[in-house]
Write a structure and sequence with these properties.
By secondary structure, the chain is of the alpha/beta class. 36% of the residues lie in helices and 18% in strands. Helix 2 runs parallel beside helix 4 and helix 5 runs parallel beside helix 7.
């Protein structure tokens, strides 16, 4: 049984995700036709002009009405009022609020800065509907702001590389549902994905030729900023680093030889924390990588170290004995403390997975929890800012409802003091890419991530699952206007599998089967980096039908 909702009926009827904090409906509708006009008033900057153009482009794609040049020359029926600039580099807890007032004849969008404007434009686009009179939006007044300041999507490009165009269209999807942090998982055992000019063997021997140039990194960061999205990079260490050692084996704790891994799982290779040369290398690399990413936060991973290389190395064991490090966890803490000082010296705030949290961890380190709400609460009690990904692992093919009902403030977090709860920054959907290629990754992210976006934006009491599914189907359709391929990819793959232009025999099973949930797939067959993901299990969408009374509700 779903928890009861306390939302007003009028607010629940808005076909948008996330639902706004406050809305007051009126009577009638604002029609969208060839006379539609738009104007910017008050503060302006190139980002606002670009946002206005994207808005018009998306509106034109949805309605089929040419609005680009005409909307700027027509009398303005849609006025955007921006009070002032946002920070040159977007910061945590900036004002993202906006007010959207829609009458029968006029629309006014007002915000303190461009961030709020960008959010308000997306709300208007989601309100567009088809009526007997034509395209319109309902008369309504919306006052809106997010519940959490950190609303993220992580995409892993270490295991399967994702080209820039894939990243950018998913940034467009993030803008559509008001997510504001792109967590870019840039290195793992299977690949180091960023060009380093100081240490070129990282990409030359550790990427298989698939990496981003520094110029491309800058372009993606700018693309994200134009959409109100921060970019937080992750370079995982001291483990998940096999690809690093292909070019620089002196960093490793074992004897090698090393090459980028071609299989998945928790692997043994680990950096050697006992050599001073390891930290000299990392200092230089961090100096280069932090310069590419303006954001204040820098993720260093820190997860899933099995310690086997450390245990098998007599020199490392002697170091641990001499320094009073009783076990592998203590050695990893020693490593994390050294890396934190390096990150801080390069004017960044360190972020890491649960494993970097120990009683002596500096309180300005952000703890990214993948092990549960209990670990989240432990971090907040200890004085660290923290965010949740447990329950938001979208690569596991779970239903939108399962993700939707996970809340960063539930469980142990609900027992925290208000001061401790303020340290919970929000959460991130995580797209690990063992079973996702550029062709299918959109379908594993969307539309379910829109449900997570609502959990992190809307008030906590917004929990009506049936309402969520009804709106999710509409949002899924609208996301196509942003260039996302979460719906179109199936037909393309089925045509390839069958060799037919109309693969009807395959469409029948594709409509009723589902990819395995959780970690079932890895138990059915062994996959590696060269395994083609081109079978029916890869081609099917995450669709189910949920019945309420006599009505069928689209479900993901």
């Amino acid at each position: 049984m779903n928890p009861p909702t306390v939302r007003g009926q009028a607010e629940a009827e808005l076909q948008v995700m996330p639902l706004p904090a406050h809305s007051a409906p009126g009577e009638g509708q604002f029609l969208i036709d060839g006379s539609f006009g738009i104007a910017l008033e008050g503060y302006t900057e190139p980002r606002l002009v670009l946002g206005e153009q994207r808005f018009l482009d998306t509106l034109s794609r949805e309605t089929g009405i040419p609005l680009g040049r005409e909307a700027r020359s027509n009398k303005a029926s849609f006025v955007i009022k921006t009070a002032a600039a946002s920070d040159p580099v977007e910061k945590l807890r900036e004002d993202e609020s906006y007010r959207l007032e829609i009458s029968v004849t006029h629309v006014e969008l007002s915000a303190a800065n461009p961030l709020g404007v960008l959010h308000g434009l997306q709300t208007f686009l989601q309100l567009v509907r088809t009526t007997p009179q034509g395209f319109s939006v309902p008369v309504v007044t919306i006052d809106d702001q997010p519940r959490f300041p950190w609303r993220g999507l992580m995409i892993d490009v270490g295991r399967h590389f994702m080209p820039v165009e894939v990243i950018e269209r998913n940034l467009d999807g993030m803008e559509a549902v008001k997510l504001n942090v792109f967590h870019w998982h840039l290195s793992d055992d299977q690949g180091f994905r960023v060009e380093s000019k100081k240490f070129p063997l990282l990409q030359e021997k550790g990427s298989g030729g698939l990496f981003y140039t520094q110029k491309q990194i800058g372009e993606v960061v700018q693309y994200a900023r134009e959409r109100g999205i921060r970019v937080v990079p992750e370079f995982d260490m001291p483990c998940h680093t096999t690809a690093w050692f292909a070019g620089y084996p002196q960093l490793a704790s074992g004897t090698g030889p090393y090459q980028s891994a071609n299989h998945w799982g928790i692997l043994d290779p680990a950096m050697d924390p006992t050599r001073e040369s390891t930290f000299v290398f990392l200092d230089q690399l961090l100096g280069e990588m932090t310069a590419l990413f303006p954001d204040a936060y820098f993720h260093v991973g820190g997860d899933e170290c099995d310690g086997k290389e450390w245990d098998a190395n007599p020199r490392i064991q002697a170091f641990m004995h001499d320094h009073g490090l009783k076990d592998d966890a203590a050695l990893q803490l020693y490593f994390s403390e050294r890396v934190e000082k390096l990150v801080r010296a390069h004017h960044k705030i360190m972020e890491g997975w649960d494993e970097v949290l120990e009683p002596d961890t500096p309180t300005d380190v952000v703890i990214h929890s993948w092990r549960g709400e209990k670990a989240l609460a432990v971090a907040a009690r200890q004085g660290n800012s923290t965010l949740l990904s447990t329950g938001y692992y979208i690569d596991l093919n779970q239903s939108a409802a399962q993700h939707y009902l996970v809340d960063p403030m539930s469980g142990d977090a609900a027992q925290l003091s208000s001061e401790q709860q303020a340290r919970i920054l929000g959460g991130e959907a995580t797209m690990w890419s063992e079973y996702a290629t550029p062709e299918i990754v959109d379908s594993r992210i969307w539309p379910r991530t829109a449900a997570i976006a609502e959990r992190l934006w809307s008030p906590q009491q917004v929990r009506d699952v049936d309402s969520m599914y009804q709106r999710l189907g509409i949002v899924s359709q609208k996301l196509q206007y942003y260039g996302l391929q979460h719906r179109s990819f199936t037909d393309i793959m089925l045509e390839r599998m069958s060799g037919e232009t109309d693969p009807e025999p395959l469409k029948v099973p594709a409509a009723v089967v589902q990819p395995p949930e959780g970690y079932e797939r890895e138990e059915l067959k062994e996959y590696d980096t060269s395994s083609p993901l081109n079978r029916l299990v890869d081609a099917v969408r995450l669709l189910r039908v949920r019945r309420r009374g006599s009505s069928a509700i689209w479900q993901s």
